[in-house]
Amino acid sequence: MVATDNSIYISDKAKAKVQQLMADAGVADDSSYFLRVGVVGGGCSGLSYKLDFDNEAKPMDQVFEDNGIKIVTDLKSFLYLVNTELEFSDGLNGKGFYFNNPNASRSCGCGESFAV
Q1: Is 14 exposed, middle or buried (0-12, 13-18, 19+ CB in 10 A)?
Q2: Mind listing the pLDDT tens digit for each residue in 25-40?
Q3: How far is the C-alpha of 103 from the C-alpha of 114, rounded, in Å?
């Protein structure tokens, strides 16, 4: 991934998993749904990532589309997530979504918590 502008990106593997999860949740055919990403306080490094499906945009939301997936985040979270790529791993060393975040100065072993 080469960051060309201030955005949030999604890898091919993460896209496939998001589409599968949306289908499992019964919202794949509803174009009003999108992937909401965010940052919340907590975790062993101070900040944690949050992922969810949503269909209600808020006034200060930042909206992106990458790889055919609509990604929405609140403005405060975007300051931490600018040029981050959402990845998915199904390998033996861990299964699940993780964020390739160039803004994180350190992260924990689980990959779900970070600091800037």
Answers
A1: buried
A2: 999 999 999 999 999 8
A3: 9
